[in-house]
């Protein structure tokens, strides 16, 4: 078998690569055998380059986006109750998993010392935040507040890094507790609102946090997806409308982390990824 007749023919379209240049200078049968896999790799790389850098060929090989997929997926995810069956370490966690991944990335970037969650439910989300924070490895505390802890799972309650507080999130003792923890765990705060999803309540939560949060702190207003943004159109004014109302009253408090919000195509906190200015 000669290099020129067989090996070279198979790799002709990949000419110009260093691998082929080197291979062509080798003429023994043994060297040809060694060169063959390299030729195949070069050929494949060449084909990929043709596909990805040539718009006409690219369109033949790739799916044509309509632009509607993220919203359709969002609606499908909501209507199918995927979130209802989502767990963290076996405990219910009513979130979209792409938002959870975003939170993990925010926590890693921001390295807060205090996580404040309004809306505990079973404790899955509080446990998720504590798990991520433990991996980060700096001293921290999670404060999770709920008006009703009857559904809080014992496995979550045992977590040594989470304080579960049974109270309405807007009660003054909650603000006092956050202030005390802020002194004990100085640094940034990551706060997430996931309790009563009515406009008035979320607005009251945002206002309660206003004198507590400082520049660089992170606030996620969850479930702004409700009331037709784009799911549950009949919900009524909810978190999305609370963000709008808050921003019309305090337009300079927060910067929208739009890149983060858009990262996974859809989120359940549209307009709700906020960094304190
Ligand atoms: C959507 S669930 C929280 C889900 C949880 N964060 C998770 O990701 O799995 C909402 C929770 O908010 C609580 N809640 C309702 N009104 C509240 C209030 N005024 N203050 C604090 N919690 C409240 C409910 O008891 C319920 O457990």
TrEMBL record:
GO molecular function, one term: methyltransferase activity
Phylogenetic placement of the source organism: Bacteria, Bacillati, Actinomycetota, Actinomycetes, Mycobacteriales
Keyword Aminoacyl-tRNA synthetase annotated: no
Origin superkingdom: Bacteria
Gene Ontology CC: one annotated term: plasma membrane
Similarity section: Belongs to the rhamnosyl O-methyltransferase family.
Example of a GO biological process term: methylation
Name assigned to this protein: Rhamnosyl O-methyltransferase
UniProt KW keywords: Lipid biosynthesis, Lipid metabolism, Methyltransferase, Signal, Transferase
